[in-house]
Amino acid sequence: MLTIGNKTFNSRLFLGTGKYPDFDTQKQAVDVSEADILTFSVRRMNIFEPSQPNFLEKLDVEKYSLLPNTAGAKTAEEAVRTAKLANASGLCDMIKVEVIGDDKTLLPDPTETLKATEELVQEGYTVLPYTSDDVVLAQRLEEIGAHAVMPGASPIGSGQGILNELNLSLITELLTVPVIVDAGIGSPKDVVTAMELGADGVLLNSAVAKASKPVKMAEAMKLAVQAGQLGYEAGRIPKKRYAAASSPAEGMSV
Ligand SMILES: CC(=O)[C@@H](O)[C@H](O)COP(=O)(O)O
Question: Which parts form a coiled-coil structure per UniProt (predicted)?
């Protein structure tokens, strides 16, 4: 079970809803993934124009916890405004703060992310900021009241997987709020690694939506989260420099 703020979830997989080849594939992938939390860009929703196509129209949104994100925001002010828009439309169980600092890398702006997180926390939102894998920044976000912290594995949509295992493991060790590894996941292997590093969950989009077979990949990601979590709880063996025989001879008479 995963608890964020005052909500509890069965699944530790957070799924993005964009970039699918069509809405039927999106729905099937979401169903198969058994994700409880779905994220979507507020800017891509026709919130106040019911006649326009609705990005989530195939999904039974009542079944999920919705995590709108502030994608497209470049300042704290824009992110806060976007969060309020999502809230006003009734589509906001929690908010993912995403303030981009650079168009090419889509890496988050640290100071604006802190500012937006602080303001939204003070206004009573359940806030999950997307951040870099910087350990001290993750700690600051926790200190100002973030309900979970979401360090990136690598740049959004890059599929490069986890670039800095050390930093992610330090973040999961030092923070007490949930740590959700977000962005850059390329394959189930990356998900297992994130969970084995002690992440409480993983948020991904492109790796499923852009896979050759998105529905199959959604299932693989579900299983990877479960396998990584089980492995983490089971406690892996320490790495040794030299071999250790599987059938030790000590204590045997012959
Ligand atoms: C959907 C969303 O929130 C993305 O901004 C997120 O960071 C996922 O990134 P990937 O597409 O790399 O999984």
Answer: none
Decide if 96 is catalytic. Answer: yes
Q: What tens digit of pLDDT does each residue of 159-207 get?
A: 999 999 999 999 999 999 999 999 999 999 999 999 999 999 999 999 9
Three-class SS state of 254: coil
Q: Virtual CA dihedral for 219, 201, 103, 209, nearest 10 degrees?
A: 10
**How far is ligand 1, taken at its centre, from the CA of residue 155, in Å?**
9
Of 71, 61, 55, 6, nearest to 35 by C-alpha is 61
DSSP character at residue 224? H
Terminal Cα-to-Cα distance of the chain (whole angstroms): 50
Calpha distance 203→104 (Å, rounded): 21
Report the complex ipTM.
0.97
Q: Which of 195, 197, 190, 196 is nearest to 161 (CA)?
A: 190
Ligand 1 site residues, Cβ closer than 6 angstroms: 16, 18, 39, 69, 71, 156-157, 182-185, 203-207
